[in-house]
Each structure stands twice: as structure tokens, then as C-alpha cells.
Amino acid sequence: MKAIRRFTVRPVLPEPLRPLSDLARNLRWSWHTGTRDLFRSVDPERWAAAGGDPMRLLGSVPTERLTELAGDRDFLDRLAAVADDLDTYMTGDRWYQRQSGRLPAAVAYFSPEFGITAALPQYSGGLGILAGDHLKAASDLGAPLIGVGLLYRHGYFRQSLSRDGWQQEHYPVLDPHELPLDQLKEADGAPARITLALPGDRSLRARVWVAQVGRIPLLLLDSDIEENDLIERGVTDRLYGGGSEHRLLQEMLLGIGGVRAVRTYCRLTGHAAPEVFHTNEGHAGFLGLERMAELRAGGLDFDAALEAVRAGTVFTTHTPVPAGIDRFDRELVARHFGPHAELPNLEVDRILRLGMETYPGGEPNLFNMAVMGLRLAQRANGVSLLHGQVSREMFAGLWPGFDPEEVPITSVTNGVHAPTWVAPEVYRLGARQIGTQRAEEALSIGDSDRWDSVADIPDQDIWDLRRSLRELLVLEVRERLRASWRQRGAGTAELGWIDGVLDPDVLTIGFARRVPSYKRLTLMLRDRDRLMDLLLHPERPVQIVVAGKAHPADDGGKRLIQELVRFADDPRVRHRIVFLPDYGMAMAQKLYPGCDIWLNNPLRPLEACGTSGMKAALNGGLNLSVLDGWWDEWFQPDFGWSIPTADGAGTDPDRRDDIEAAALYDLLEQRVTRTFYERGRSGLPDRWIEMVRRTLSLLGPKVLAGRMVREYVDRLYTPAAHAHRAMDADAARELAEWKAAVRGAWHGVTVDHVETSVASATAELGSTLALRVRVGLGSLRPEDVEVQAVAGRVDEEDRITDAAAVPLKPVGVPGAGGEWVYEGPLALDRTGPFGYTVRVLPSHRLLASGAELGLVAVPPEDVAEAAGLLMR
Q1: Helix, strand, or coil here: 822?
Q2: Residue 792: which H helix or E strand, with range?
Q3: Confidence of residue 8 (pLDDT cuts 50, 70, 90)
Q4: Which segments of 718-860 does DSSP mark as H helices, in order?
Q5: Most Cβ neighbours (<10 Å): which of 3, 65, 493, 676?
Q6: pTM for this one?
Q7: How many CB atoms lie within 10 A of CB 116?
Q8: Residue 870 scores a pLDDT above 60
Q9: Could you give the CA distance from residue 264 to residue 472 in angstroms, rounded to a whole number?
């Protein structure tokens, strides 16, 4: 019989055990080994059955056991120690509090998904895991973030396989009362409510749940409440589900509703108001409009409000392809804003202009969330050096007249939260080497000094650790594979072969990620005979563990999964290659440590960062990857191997896959397996162990989320906070009026004449060239512009590469026609073909970049030709 109503019955803990509730409700337990060990000791079997979720555990422990623990002095002492440790963690000074200078009082961090723990399934892939690691690292560092997202009633989907290997989706309903969440409530105890106005006099209402992620509150908005109509209740039903209007409403709730939730939370708790708003991908871009509406209500006009909002906003793009960005029909967006819908004090046509693709190659009828995010942020970044370059090229149309390398999008390479992803066995080995405190600091803060001690760990200890992790993975794989086959309809009598799946002494390769086509799940199947030879080699075999989910609407991705599953079902190789369904955080935490090699073979440069290989590296796994994302930046032969790419513009996609698959097989056959199986005088694989050691000591500190968050604080958050403080109402009006004046007058800015002190086409290294430039400024003043000489090496087409800009200074008074003369020295500091040009940029103390307005004046061709080219 099916229940007609569901309740959550919470346990009543005996008074001495009350701290268990606080420990369970702070998600620090998900990365704090001591807290997890304490909960495991409550009831090891129930802990395992609860999937390592303290909330579920406490709901299942019998009263008798709780009573027993309440009288157990040893347990109560451990409980008090862990509770005291959490209190110290929550209140003590950490890295952020020890920094000098005026850091942001608070930062609001918006993301459509957060991967904190499997016990709070609100993530689908890398974006969410990154967001979760960002919050956890910020907590460890003491950075005052407020996370903002949505609470999806079905989360992402659960994955299983049909008998023939086709992905099937399941959407279990999540009860917020069973999750580690608390409702945000008003002072009178009533639930706090966020309301958005919809067309047709309708409303979208949401309550706010708070997940405590260490020191960081994570606000999750939930529209599944009785005050909403059926359609509005379903807005937060699924992550990345529904059609265009459904997605638009989700993103309006995340951005606009999220700002209102932050304001409400700060009002009710006394938390410092954010000085910086960080938009993690374009999904939350509407947050800038809500902040503009707040300022409009305070008396600023649209343009001044825009400048004030931009000053304190950071935008991070995660996609390397336009197809990965949310875009909406302009009419759909227009219908949801204005006098009869949301943000009535913002002009709809001005809102639309913020997101329209008004640049060559853009779709003029589409509203682009990333474009809006960039226009609403004074600071933007990609998530690896290569991705920063790709992003500058992809969005260069927003800054016409500038070379892609000058587009104001920097990069902060992603990192991963080591305490979450490092296996307890690895952590214990490190703690034994350098002590518990230093090991915790090494994982959370970084600092290579703490990682150097890996060099002192004996080879035998490293090899024994790697084998034990591989053995744990083998047991995990067999258990999951057996459950998967039962879901596929197999009987117990058919599954005896699973006891022989994988071998703890065989080189183990892992491949697990989302399954869009560019990640090439099935590249390993290009030459099945060669793959079989690798799997079944009599002396140097390999075994492969594969996992991943295709988007429910992506039948192409599902076909790739089915193709791999059918290969892995072959009785000849099924003991050497497996596909595990329902890839998620719980599986990943076992998978990364147990793999010797982490394989990644995307189409370069379509992997923005790709952090899974970082997690493997922190556990001593070596990377075997295409030079894309973070691997392009930090690859060294000490850390693994690079798969050569055939990414020339004229390469046929099939031929490219054939070439790169062949390169992958060659690496495995000739280098990877030989290094793993070759034994030195000690009987150990010396070269392999040395690669593991160097991966941990040299790569380990780089891939930390702690390093990533420190970079955000130093390079983006703090400058944004300073800009926010400088941009008071008067400054915002001043900047807006100045920009309008400059845009209106820019047609009168010209470079009329350029002359130099050297007439020949050659010059000596170290000499100095005197430049004299005549420019017309029209109605502008010298303080409104910067005149620059831009110099560097030139290619065969006289394009300047590796350019450096040198400001020139005005001399004398303006001429009769309003022309100004600028002069300055240009040092010839490099040999070879060398060239220069001159340009004029807008200049104002409140600009973050000279490219910010997308305005530049350069010499016309006749002036450029007369100026000449040096050192040919």
C-alpha cells in the first residue's frame, strides 16, 4: 500500500548526545575525517547502509543504542573533542583573517549547482563540483562567502542501464526535511519568503533553505511550496530540465531571487553584506539586474546603476564553445520584465541590450546570458590559462578593435578541495610524515614547503599505499557491478564471474565524466583489437574502470555509453573493463584514489579545465591526457603523459580520432605499461614510484582549491571590493556621464601623424627610439585618453606579437585645430623583426581596463606606412 502523506520523524537525542545534531547539520563532516569516524563508531553497519550520511544514520539508530552511547564516557569524550574542534574551526582566525589590507567584508557566490556531498545531491558535473569545492576551500581559508543556488526537488537524475546497455533515468524525490538543511525564518518564526513577479499578475514564490558548509552559509531557493500554482511549484523541480521558459524562470529565481535571499539572510542574521558578487557561469547573470533595480530605487539612473553594479561584480565563464551558453529568444525575456512583470523600474529595451549579441557573427534576436554576465561585470575570468585564451577569442566581438590577447578576461585555473578528494589512507600517510596539523594545512592552504616532505617517504610505503587503494577499488567495483547487473535483470546464478573482475596487481586506468561527444568516451574503442591486446597482455595487462552520465536529452551520448557497455559485456574482456552506472561524488571518492592512470581525451581545446585528473593526482595517480584545460598548463613528463593531438583546421574528424587513438595505444603499449611493470633492483617499479612522488610533491600544491580561492581573493575579489567602495553614487554618476561623453565624441579622436628619431630600417638592441605623435581629440581632453606606443616582435604579416604598451605624454599646448602632440621613448629591448604602432584609448581612474569601453583609435594606413617598420 502506498502512503497518502509523508512525514519526516526526527530522532530525539539524549541530552549528552545533542552535539551530534550540530555536527550532522554542518557539512564540514563531509571532508573532516575525525567527524566521519565519530559517526561511523555510532553504528558501523548503519553508517554504511546510510551511505556515510549522518542525518540518515541518526534517523535509523535504535533508542537503546543512543541510550548506551549517552552513558559511554569514551564516546562522550570523543564527541566533546570533535564538537570543540568544530567550534574552533568556526570561530578562530584563519588565512583570510591574517591578511593585511581591506579585504571584502563578504562575497556572494552564485551557481546553478553545488556539489558538496552525495548527501545533498544538487549537482550534475564539473561546474557543481567546482562550486562545492570553492565553498569548502573558502571555509577552510576563512573567506566570508555566501553561497547562493537552487534546491532541486529531484536533483539531477539517477542512472541505471537496461539489459542492452541503454541509459535509463530515475528522478527520486528529495525531501528537504531529510537533508542537512534548515529553513531561513523571520524573527517571528515564519518562513522567509522570496517573491518574483510574473507576467499576467502571477507570482513565483520561494522559501530559502540554508546548508551550513563549514563556515559558509549556502542559500538554496525552493519554489515547491503551497503558495505557488502548479507550474511555479515546478520551477525548481530538476537541474537543467524543462524548456526555454522553464530555464528562464530558474535563472531569474537564481539571480534576482538569490540577491533578495542574500539581503534577507544578512538582515536576519547580521552577516556582513556582500561587497562583491561572483557569478559562476551565466545562469545567475540576472543578479546584476536586481542590484541595478535596488540602486534605481535609491535614485540612480540606469547608466549610473550599471557602473555601480559592474564595479563589484566578478564573472567566471566555464564554457569554451558558444553552444554551451544559455540563450533565450529576446521576446521571451522581454515578456518577463518591465511594468507588468519583474523589475518594473528598469527599461526593458535597456535590459535586452545588455544580453543581445550585437557583434559580427552574433544572433541579433537572441539574449545571451554570458554576454549579459560580461557586460554586467568589470572583472571576468576563464578557468585555466588555455581557457582564458579561448574565452578572449570567443568573446572578442564585445571589444572591437582589440586583439584577443587584450580582451579583459583573465584566468584563474580551477583547483580541487583536497580534504574532500584525498583518500583517508593517503592523508594518514602524510600525517605520519609531517604531523596532523601540517598535513591539514598542506591540503587546505597549500604551500609547497609542506609537500616537499613527500620526498622522504620510503618507496615501499608509496607502493604499498597504491596497491591497497587499488584493492579497495576492486572491491568497490565488484559490489557496484553486481548491483548494476541485478538492475539489468540478471539473476544471482549468472553473476559468479564478477568475483574475478579486476585484479589489485594490474595497472588500472580510470575514465569518468559527463558524456558529451567532445569528451570522446569511446575513443579507446577506435581499434578494438589493439584495446583487447592491451587488456589481455600476458605480461603487462591493463584494466579500465569507466563511468559517466549522458544528459537525458542527449541520445548521442547515450549511444556512446551503450557502445562502451556492449564492449565491456564481452565475456572475453569483462574481467578487465567495466562501466559503472550512476557516477556521482560517492563513487568518485573511491574511484580517483584507486586508479593508477587517469585518462582524459577531449577534443582540444574544448575542455575548459577538467578537474578530475587533479583529484587523481592528489592521490598519487598519474595523468594520461590530451594537452587541454589544466593539463596544458602544468603537464610535465614527471607527472604523466600527453596524448598528441591532430587538431589542424583541415583534419577530418574521423581521421583526427584515428590518429589520436593510435597515439593513445602507442603510449600505453610502449611507455605507460612498461614503466608500471618494470622492476628495479629493489623489486619495485622505481621510475613509476618516482613519478608518483613528484606528482604529489610538485603538482599537489598547484591543484588545490585553496590556491584557487586565494587567487580569487588577491586578483579579483579584493580589487572588485576596492572598486565597489570607490563607486559611490556620485562616482557612478560621474563615470556614467564620462562614458557617455567619450562614446559621443570618439568619432573625433584621430592619430594624424607619427614620426621617429630613427630613419633606417635597422637599429641596435638596447637603443631608444624617440616617438612624436600628433593626435586629434575633438571635444575630449588629454586626461580623457591615454596615447600609447604598442611595440613587440612582428610576424610575416607585420602583426605585433608579445606586445608591450608604453604611455606617451602630451607636450606643449593644443594646436589651432585642437591637435595635441605626444612624445615618449621606446626602448628596443629585443632582437629580430620588431615593430610598433600608436593608439589612443579612453582613460579614467575608475576603469579596470583600457579596453573596457571597446573604443580605440589607431593611425590610418597612410600614417602607418609613413611611420615605418623597424629592425626587419
Answers
A1: strand
A2: strand 785-794
A3: low
A4: 718-726, 729-745
A5: 676
A6: 0.95
A7: 29
A8: no
A9: 46
Alpha carbon distance 466, 443 (integer Å): 19
Round to whole Å and give the CA distance between 225 and 188.
Answer: 19
If phi > 0 it is left, if psi is from -120 to 50 it is alpha, else beta; for residue 214 that is left
3-state secondary structure 179-196: CCCEECECCCCCECEEEE
Provide the β-strand partners of residue 316. 280, 381
Take residue 467 and report the three cell numbers written for it: 596497491
Provide φ and ψ at 826, rounded to 5°.
Answer: -130, 110
Q: Which three cell numbers stand for residue 43?
A: 553504528
Lowest mean pLDDT among 408-412, 671-675, 812-816: 812-816
Q: How many residues does the chain have?
A: 872
Contacts of 400 (CB under 8 A, 6+ apart): 359, 854
Q: Please state, as a whole number, how many other Cβ atoms lie within 10 Å of the Cβ of residue 108.
A: 29
- What type of residue is 307? E
- Asked if 488 and 162 touch (Cβ cutoff 8 Å), the reply is yes
What is the three-class DSSP state of 296? helix
Which helix (H) or strand (E) is 546 found in, with range?
Answer: strand 542-547
Q: Which three cell numbers, joined as nine digits, stand for 607?
A: 575542455
Torsion angles phi and psi, residue 378, rounded to 5: -85, -15
Cell numbers describing residue 142? 576563512
Q: Can you read off the three cell numbers belonging to residue 356?
A: 543581445
Report how far residue 550's alpha carbon sits from residue 248's, in angstroms, rounded to the nearest whole number. 23
DSSP state, 778?
A: T
Residue that is written with C-alpha cell 570607490 in the block: 726
- How many C-beta neighbours within 10 Å does residue 87 have? 12
Distances (CA, A) of 396 to 78, 83, 355, 745, 852: 57, 52, 15, 23, 12
190-243 tens-digit pLDDT: 999 999 999 999 999 999 999 999 999 999 999 999 999 999 999 999 998 888
Q: Facing residues of 314 across strands?
A: 278, 379
DSSP E strand stretches across 89-228: 107-110, 145-150, 158-161, 167-170, 182-183, 193-198, 202-213, 216-222
pLDDT at 395: 94
Using alpha carbons, select from 516, 508, 497, 495 the residue that is nearest to residue 561: 516
Give, in order, the Cα–Cα distances in Å from 476 to each of 442, 470, 586. 28, 10, 11
Q: What residues are paired with 167 via a beta bridge?
A: 161
Burial class, 831, CB count within 10 angstroms (exposed 0-12 / middle 13-18 / buried 19+): exposed
The long-range contacts involving 386-393, CB below 8 angstroms and separated by at least 24 positions, are 386/605, 386/628, 386/629, 386/632, 386/633, 387/320, 387/411, 387/605, 387/608, 387/609, 387/629, 390/320, 390/605, 390/608, 391/317, 391/320
Q: If residue 769 lies in a helix (H) or strand (E), which one and from where to where?
A: strand 768-776
Question: 3-state class of 502 per DSSP?
Answer: coil
Q: Phi and psi (nearest 5°) for 602?
A: -75, 170
Q: Cβ distance 218 to 179 under 8 Å?
A: no
Q: Report residue 515 as a C-alpha cell.
A: 558524456
49: left (phi over 0), alpha (psi -120 to 50) or beta: alpha
In the beta sheet, which residues pair with residue 821? 774, 811
Task: Answer for the pair 427, 435: CB distance below 8 angstroms, yes or no.
Answer: no
Residues 690-716 have a mean pLDDT of: 95
Alpha-carbon span 767 to 773, nearest angstrom: 19
b/e code 701-740 from CB counts within 10 Å (16+ = b): bbbbbbbbbbbbbebbbbbbbbbbeebeeebbbbbbebbe
Instruction: Compute the radius of gyration of the chain from its Cα atoms.
Output: 29
Nearest to 117 by CA among 681, 589, 790: 589
- Cβ-in-10-Å burial (0-12, 13-18, 19+) of 489 comes to exposed
